Amino acid sequence: MGWFRWDGDDLLLDCHLQPKASKDEFAGLHGERLKIRLTAPPVEGKANAQLLAFLGKAFGVAKSQVSLESGELNRQKRVRIHAPQRLPELPGLTARSP
C-alpha cells in the first residue's frame, strides 16, 4: 500500500483531508492517500489540530505523539504516529514486520 509505511516503531501516513465535514471519520482511500473527514474548518490550524487529536485517539496514543511532517497549509498531509498502540481497521493497513 502506498498510503502508509513503517519507520522503525513509527507509522507514517499520507492523508487527504476533507475539512468542514459532517463528522470525523476515515473515508477510505483517495488515490494513494488515506482520506480523513474532519468537522473542523481549515482556518488558523484548527483542522490540523483536530487531525492530530483524531489520529491519536484512533491509534491509541496521546496527541503529542502524533506530528505533522508535511502539508501544514495543504489538504495533502504526511503524519507521523510515534509507536501506535493499536491499528484501526483501514484498507491494507498491516502491523510492522519484526
Automatic annotation (TrEMBL):
Coiled coil: none annotated. It holds the Pfam family DUF167. GO terms for cellular component: cytoplasm. PANTHER family: UPF0235 PROTEIN C15ORF40. NCBIfam families: DUF167 family protein. Belongs to the UPF0235 family. This is UPF0235 protein H3H45_05985. It comes from Aquipseudomonas guryensis.
